[in-house]
Amino acid sequence: xxxxxxxxxxxxxxxxxxxxxxxxxxxxxxxxxxxxxxxxxxxxxxxxxxxxxxxxxxxxxxxxxxxxxxxxxxxxxxxxxxxxxxxxxxxxxxxxxxxxxxxxxxxxxxxxxxxxxxxxxxxxxxxxxxxxxxxxxxxxxxxxxxxxxxxxxxxxxxxxxxxxxxxxxxxxxxxxxxxxxxxxxxxxxxxxxxxxxxxxxxxxxxxxxxxxxxxxxxxxxxxxxxxxxxxxxxxxxxxxxxxxxxxxxxxxxxxxxxxxxxxxxxxxxxxxxxxxxxxxxxxxxxxxxxxxxxxxxxxxxxxxxxxxxxxxxxxxxxxxxxxxxxxxxxxxxxxxxxxxxxxxxxxxxxxxxxxxxxxxxxxxxxxxxxxxxxxxxxxxxxxxxxxxxxxxxxxxxxxxxxxxxxxxxxxxxxxxxx
Length: 418
Known about the structure:
There is one protein chain. The protein is of the alpha+beta class. The protein has 3 domains: 67-267, Rossmann fold (3-Layer(aba) Sandwich); 282-340, SH3 type barrels; 342-416, Beta Barrel (Elongation Factor Tu (Ef-tu), domain 3). 23% of the residues lie in helices and 32% in strands. It has helices at 42-45, 52-62, 83-91, 119-131, 142-158, 165-184, 218-221, 241-250, 272-278, and strands at 2-9, 12-21, 24-29, 71-78, 96-102, 136-140, 187-191, 196-201, 204-209, 232-233, 286-289, 295-299, 322-327, 332-336, 343-352, 358-362, 370-377, 380-389, 397-402, 405-416. The strands form 5 sheets. The chain has a 6-stranded antiparallel β-barrel. Strand 5 (96-102), helix 4 and strand 6 (136-140) form a beta-alpha-beta unit. The longest helix is centred in the middle third of the chain and has 20 residues, at 165-184. It is globular, with a radius of gyration of 24 Å. The model has no long low-confidence stretch (mean pLDDT 93).
């Protein structure tokens, strides 16, 4: 077969053309690379460095076709260009293969370079792999990501929900693509730099909180199907972020001092409301009302508000007011005092991963978990909270913990005060 890839930066352009027979390159038109590609397998070619543009072009040629026979020592390592994935690569041995997902970024965002999937992140991840003689593969999934994550994010806000795109990405799209790649190259497992742990509980393999509570990412990963965990490892889950940086510094890694990547990376550092307006949610005048329906003020789009929001309401009152709920059909935002936000019963569409009667329920990424009783329902579960939670929003993730172990997850569909 013949493979072609190209890459451009401004007016500069490079192209690579390969002829492959039985997984070995038999001919190559590829200037600017560090060595002749002829005689190499596609996976071996992925370890060849050189000038940036030709290496980019080579990566684009290889990505759709690279595959290899199963090797129990091979580890696919998800690379973001940051310190966590860099240290994960160090831990993964001489048969590691780096893989970076290139995902869609808002071209109008102000700070795309801090995103985990930016072009510079791809180059940094590849450079680290090549410096250690390891293959690196870039999977260009921009359109797939836009359909699977960005589109549902916009549609969720259009319905009056408060979706968390990082939950959909990490717990679904990202791991599905990475594990499929690991199988394609014959890797025995996938290693990532997430701060989480994998534990055995009553004969089941389940996700658990990381040792470092400040960096724990089990909430973001909670929708990951436990059946996939047998093929996944989180080498950093038993250490702190400061220990990770110290390890990177001791190894002389350039990523040791690199800044944290952004949440909701596709926003590229921009405000989500401005993003939504650019992507289909039009401003339209609507009413701010109290619980009885009395009009208190005006707004220019229900989707600009989420339950628990206090700032930006534009209503003067004797006591602080909060957004209580939004109505997409009438373009109305209901506001009221903080106590009106209290919710004790929460219905969730999702699943329980293990039998549980009492749990700690985390209903927002930055909110503390609340003790609760849980009962399974036809399409998920229902929570009866021991104490009220404030700012519970449709579309947000509900993650259930038994101690440190994730025993259930799903998306909030409704919440009531009783």
